[in-house]
Amino acid sequence: MQYYFAPMEGITGYPFRNTFEKYFPGADRYYSPFLVANQTFHFKKKELRDVAPENNGTVNLIPQVMTPQADQFVWAVKVLSELGYQEVNLNLGCPSATVVTRHKGAGMLEDPERLDRFFEEVFEGLEKIEPHEGAEVVSQANGVPGISIKTRIGFSDVKEAMHLTEIFNRYPFCEIIIHPRLREEYYSGEPHRDVFGEMLNKLKTPVVYNGNLCTVEDVKKIRTDFPVLDAVMIGRGALQNPALFRMLRAAEEGNDPQGAALQKNELRPYLDELFENYSREMSGDVQVMFKMKELWAHLRVLFPESGKAMKKLKKAKTRADYESFLNEIC
Ligand SMILES: Cc1cc2nc3c(=O)[nH]c(=O)nc-3n(C[C@H](O)[C@H](O)[C@H](O)COP(=O)(O)O)c2cc1C
């Protein structure tokens, strides 16, 4: 079984990925938060820093791109291929209103015929790009990176899933990651596992499940329900319990996963180094604390009894306030 760390914009940038990988290795790959390709045909400096190989050490990274325009996507694949990437992922899942109204992310699922044309143009365009010199194993016949997608099951109705499946089956994706919710469901409620199963049965491409896998038991259940799965993607579960991948590996080796559970003394060095790594990328403790607070919105589930300390975190304005909170909690 392969375990993928889900992309989470605002959280899983390279300072986070490197720190996580150092303290809690176990994910087979990480996906970058989406890079925006647009009519400027330039990525932002911050986006380029995020995928620069020298900033990604030992992390096995798959870059993700968001754009509704085929020529922009093909351009992005070329740039990323030149950086040495052998797979590029397309975002078909972001539900945010500003994204969707521009027909990007999950907005691309709203008009399946337009999506079909987008893919047709993408694969035609990819045939024309020159393979990057020195490219090794690749999924496209002509030596350019393989294309994977990360998608929802539809925009506003689960009935859309089968039509999308037919469209996906027309193209040579190397992998399809499915988060079985509709755009309108954002990230809450139960994922539609029945619809996921129907898509899995019909899709010709290897499929990865993503959504609400937070414990070893959750992963066991999905594997029992869908034994053909070779990989699952985990996001919030790994933020909440950084030892989750390690516990999954222990279970796979036939050991008690509790033996690999998070130790109390492991959290502080991880969080301290993360703070330092963010400090190098951002200017000022206030910005860094904002990042740490975002992470704590997930980590706090580890501390159900600590309402008072969490209030302290919320109020923290200086690094000293934040340190004082940390001293109390771990
Ligand atoms: C804060 C946040 C940011 C996210 N950013 C991205 C992103 O950049 N690209 C993407 O494909 N999905 C993004 N997602 C979705 C996650 O990758 C994942 O699909 C979602 O959290 C469900 O999986 P989980 O239940 O394991 O967390 C984001 C989710 C959250 C909560």
Explain how this protein is built.
The protein is α/β, with parallel strands linked by helices. It has two domains: 2-260, Aldolase class I (TIM Barrel, Alpha-Beta Barrel); 264-329. It has 14 helices and ten strands. A ten-stranded parallel beta sheet has the order 3-5-6-7-8-9-10-1-2-4. α11 (267-281) packs antiparallel against α12 and α13 packs antiparallel against α14. The protein is globular and about 55 Å long. It binds flavin mononucleotide. Flavin mononucleotide (FMN) binds next to α9.
In round numbers, the mean pLDDT is 95
What ions, cofactors and ligands are bound? Answer: flavin mononucleotide
Task: State the assembly state of the protein chains.
Answer: single chain
CATH class of the largest domain: Alpha Beta
Radius of gyration: 20 Å
Run of helices and strands: EHEEHEEHEHHEHEHEHEHHHHHH
What separation lies between the terminal Cα atoms?
Answer: 32 Å
Shape: globular
Largest sheet: 10 strands, parallel
CATH second-level architecture of the largest domain: Alpha-Beta Barrel
Please identify which CATH superfamily of the largest domain we are dealing with: Aldolase class I
Q: The CATH topology of the largest domain is what?
A: TIM Barrel
Strand proportion, as a percent range, falls in 5-15%
Number of strands: 10
Query: Number of helical runs?
Result: 14
Total tally of structural domains? 2
**What strand line-up does the widest sheet have?**
3-5-6-7-8-9-10-1-2-4
As a percent range, the share of helical residues equals 40-55%
